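call fold(seq) -> C-alpha coordinates
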Amino acid sequence: MNNIGFPRRRHFALLLLLALSLALAGCGGSSSSSDTVTISKITVTPATANLTVGSTQQFYAAAVDTNNNSVAVATSWTSSSPAVASINASGIATGLTAGTTQITASAGGVTSNTSAVTVAARVASLTISPMSSTVKVNATQQFTAVAKDSSGNVVTGAAISWACSFVGVATVDTNGLVTGISPGTVTIVASVGTVSSQPAALTVTP
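ret:
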Protein backbone atom coordinates (compact mmCIF):
# COMPACT_ATOMS: atom_id res chain seq x y z
CA MET A 1 0.00 0.00 0.00
CA ASN A 2 2.79 2.39 0.81
CA ASN A 3 4.44 1.78 -2.56
CA ILE A 4 1.15 2.43 -4.37
CA GLY A 5 0.36 5.67 -2.47
CA PHE A 6 3.78 7.25 -2.93
CA PRO A 7 3.29 8.22 -6.62
CA ARG A 8 -0.06 9.79 -5.75
CA ARG A 9 1.42 11.85 -2.91
CA ARG A 10 4.27 12.91 -5.19
CA HIS A 11 1.79 13.94 -7.91
CA PHE A 12 -0.19 15.97 -5.39
CA ALA A 13 2.96 17.73 -4.15
CA LEU A 14 3.93 18.68 -7.71
CA LEU A 15 0.47 20.11 -8.33
CA LEU A 16 0.72 22.13 -5.11
CA LEU A 17 4.12 23.55 -6.09
CA LEU A 18 2.77 24.49 -9.52
CA ALA A 19 -0.18 26.30 -7.96
CA LEU A 20 2.09 28.22 -5.60
CA SER A 21 4.37 29.22 -8.51
CA LEU A 22 1.42 30.56 -10.49
CA ALA A 23 0.21 32.53 -7.47
CA LEU A 24 3.61 34.09 -6.92
CA ALA A 25 3.88 35.00 -10.60
CA GLY A 26 0.51 36.70 -10.37
CA CYS A 27 1.66 38.77 -7.43
CA GLY A 28 4.79 39.81 -9.32
CA GLY A 29 2.66 41.36 -12.05
CA SER A 30 2.20 44.51 -9.97
CA SER A 31 5.83 45.59 -10.32
CA SER A 32 6.41 48.52 -12.68
CA SER A 33 8.23 48.19 -15.99
CA SER A 34 10.15 50.83 -17.88
CA ASP A 35 7.92 50.07 -20.86
CA THR A 36 4.87 51.39 -18.99
CA VAL A 37 6.44 54.56 -17.57
CA THR A 38 4.83 57.80 -18.78
CA ILE A 39 7.46 60.51 -19.03
CA SER A 40 6.26 63.98 -18.14
CA LYS A 41 9.43 66.07 -18.45
CA ILE A 42 13.11 65.80 -19.37
CA THR A 43 15.64 68.35 -18.17
CA VAL A 44 19.07 68.71 -19.75
CA THR A 45 22.04 70.17 -17.88
CA PRO A 46 24.07 72.29 -18.22
CA ALA A 47 21.65 74.79 -19.76
CA THR A 48 24.52 76.58 -21.56
CA ALA A 49 28.05 75.62 -22.52
CA ASN A 50 31.04 77.28 -24.17
CA LEU A 51 33.41 75.07 -26.13
CA THR A 52 36.40 75.50 -28.37
CA VAL A 53 36.98 73.46 -31.49
CA GLY A 54 38.07 70.00 -30.37
CA SER A 55 36.94 70.34 -26.74
CA THR A 56 34.10 68.31 -25.20
CA GLN A 57 31.22 68.80 -22.77
CA GLN A 58 29.25 66.13 -20.90
CA PHE A 59 25.49 66.69 -20.87
CA TYR A 60 23.02 64.98 -18.52
CA ALA A 61 19.30 64.25 -18.91
CA ALA A 62 16.94 63.82 -15.94
CA ALA A 63 13.43 62.47 -16.60
CA VAL A 64 10.37 62.50 -14.31
CA ASP A 65 6.99 60.80 -14.63
CA THR A 66 3.54 62.34 -14.21
CA ASN A 67 3.93 62.11 -10.42
CA ASN A 68 7.24 64.02 -10.63
CA ASN A 69 9.19 60.91 -9.65
CA SER A 70 12.60 60.37 -11.22
CA VAL A 71 12.65 57.59 -13.81
CA ALA A 72 15.54 55.95 -15.61
CA VAL A 73 15.06 56.00 -19.37
CA ALA A 74 17.26 55.73 -22.43
CA THR A 75 17.42 59.15 -24.07
CA SER A 76 18.31 60.13 -27.62
CA TRP A 77 20.55 63.18 -28.06
CA THR A 78 20.31 65.74 -30.86
CA SER A 79 22.38 68.73 -31.96
CA SER A 80 20.49 71.27 -34.06
CA SER A 81 23.72 72.08 -35.93
CA PRO A 82 25.81 68.90 -35.97
CA ALA A 83 28.45 70.63 -38.09
CA VAL A 84 29.09 73.02 -35.18
CA ALA A 85 28.99 70.42 -32.39
CA SER A 86 28.19 66.72 -32.48
CA ILE A 87 26.81 64.74 -29.55
CA ASN A 88 27.06 60.99 -29.03
CA ALA A 89 24.72 58.48 -27.38
CA SER A 90 26.36 59.11 -23.99
CA GLY A 91 25.60 62.86 -24.07
CA ILE A 92 29.15 64.00 -24.81
CA ALA A 93 29.23 66.99 -27.19
CA THR A 94 32.34 67.82 -29.25
CA GLY A 95 33.04 71.25 -30.73
CA LEU A 96 33.73 71.00 -34.48
CA THR A 97 33.53 74.49 -35.96
CA ALA A 98 32.91 77.99 -34.64
CA GLY A 99 29.20 78.76 -34.23
CA THR A 100 26.18 77.99 -32.07
CA THR A 101 23.90 74.98 -31.71
CA GLN A 102 21.11 73.66 -29.49
CA ILE A 103 21.37 70.35 -27.61
CA THR A 104 18.22 68.40 -26.71
CA ALA A 105 17.38 64.97 -25.30
CA SER A 106 14.22 62.97 -26.02
CA ALA A 107 12.52 59.80 -24.83
CA GLY A 108 9.00 58.43 -24.87
CA GLY A 109 7.80 61.17 -27.21
CA VAL A 110 8.98 63.93 -24.84
CA THR A 111 11.69 66.44 -25.78
CA SER A 112 13.77 68.28 -23.20
CA ASN A 113 14.61 71.93 -22.82
CA THR A 114 17.30 73.22 -25.18
CA SER A 115 20.88 73.76 -24.04
CA ALA A 116 22.65 76.58 -25.89
CA VAL A 117 26.18 75.70 -26.97
CA THR A 118 28.68 78.21 -28.35
CA VAL A 119 31.78 76.87 -30.07
CA ALA A 120 34.77 79.18 -30.52
CA ALA A 121 37.78 78.61 -32.72
CA ARG A 122 40.80 77.10 -31.00
CA VAL A 123 43.08 79.82 -29.61
CA ALA A 124 46.60 79.64 -31.02
CA SER A 125 48.08 82.86 -29.59
CA LEU A 126 47.45 85.61 -27.08
CA THR A 127 48.75 89.18 -27.20
CA ILE A 128 48.78 91.15 -23.96
CA SER A 129 48.99 94.91 -23.53
CA PRO A 130 50.56 96.99 -22.20
CA MET A 131 53.77 94.97 -22.18
CA SER A 132 55.21 97.13 -19.40
CA SER A 133 53.72 99.62 -16.97
CA THR A 134 54.25 101.30 -13.62
CA VAL A 135 51.66 101.93 -10.91
CA LYS A 136 51.76 103.20 -7.35
CA VAL A 137 50.68 101.19 -4.33
CA ASN A 138 46.86 100.94 -4.26
CA ALA A 139 46.64 102.24 -7.85
CA THR A 140 45.32 100.10 -10.70
CA GLN A 141 46.33 99.22 -14.25
CA GLN A 142 44.00 97.61 -16.81
CA PHE A 143 45.54 94.87 -18.96
CA THR A 144 43.89 93.47 -22.08
CA ALA A 145 44.54 90.39 -24.18
CA VAL A 146 43.60 89.54 -27.77
CA ALA A 147 43.16 85.87 -28.69
CA LYS A 148 43.77 84.67 -32.26
CA ASP A 149 43.41 81.34 -34.05
CA SER A 150 46.06 79.65 -36.16
CA SER A 151 45.05 81.77 -39.17
CA GLY A 152 45.49 85.03 -37.26
CA ASN A 153 41.78 85.67 -36.91
CA VAL A 154 40.56 87.21 -33.66
CA VAL A 155 38.72 84.70 -31.47
CA THR A 156 35.84 86.40 -29.67
CA GLY A 157 34.35 84.99 -26.50
CA ALA A 158 37.50 83.15 -25.43
CA ALA A 159 37.65 82.53 -21.66
CA ILE A 160 40.84 84.36 -20.69
CA SER A 161 42.48 83.71 -17.33
CA TRP A 162 44.90 86.12 -15.67
CA ALA A 163 47.84 85.46 -13.34
CA CYS A 164 50.37 87.56 -11.40
CA SER A 165 53.81 86.19 -10.55
CA PHE A 166 53.70 87.44 -6.94
CA VAL A 167 50.49 88.55 -5.23
CA GLY A 168 52.48 90.24 -2.46
CA VAL A 169 53.40 92.96 -4.96
CA ALA A 170 50.23 93.11 -7.10
CA THR A 171 46.98 91.27 -7.69
CA VAL A 172 45.02 90.79 -10.91
CA ASP A 173 41.29 90.05 -11.16
CA THR A 174 39.39 87.96 -13.69
CA ASN A 175 39.07 90.95 -16.03
CA GLY A 176 42.79 91.79 -16.13
CA LEU A 177 42.61 94.72 -13.70
CA VAL A 178 45.84 94.88 -11.67
CA THR A 179 46.13 96.56 -8.27
CA GLY A 180 49.48 97.54 -6.74
CA ILE A 181 50.00 96.08 -3.24
CA SER A 182 53.62 96.86 -2.32
CA PRO A 183 56.78 98.14 -4.07
CA GLY A 184 58.37 95.65 -6.43
CA THR A 185 58.23 94.17 -9.93
CA VAL A 186 56.02 91.33 -11.16
CA THR A 187 54.91 89.77 -14.43
CA ILE A 188 51.33 89.51 -15.66
CA VAL A 189 50.28 86.66 -17.95
CA ALA A 190 47.03 85.94 -19.81
CA SER A 191 46.08 82.41 -20.84
CA VAL A 192 43.39 80.37 -22.55
CA GLY A 193 43.71 76.70 -21.73
CA THR A 194 47.33 75.74 -22.37
CA VAL A 195 48.04 78.84 -24.52
CA SER A 196 49.71 81.73 -22.67
CA SER A 197 50.75 85.24 -23.64
CA GLN A 198 54.20 86.73 -23.33
CA PRO A 199 54.62 88.03 -19.75
CA ALA A 200 54.07 91.73 -19.26
CA ALA A 201 56.22 93.59 -16.72
CA LEU A 202 54.57 95.62 -13.97
CA THR A 203 56.46 97.79 -11.48
CA VAL A 204 54.79 98.98 -8.30
CA THR A 205 56.22 102.11 -6.70
CA PRO A 206 55.54 103.65 -3.26
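The mean pLDDT is 87.
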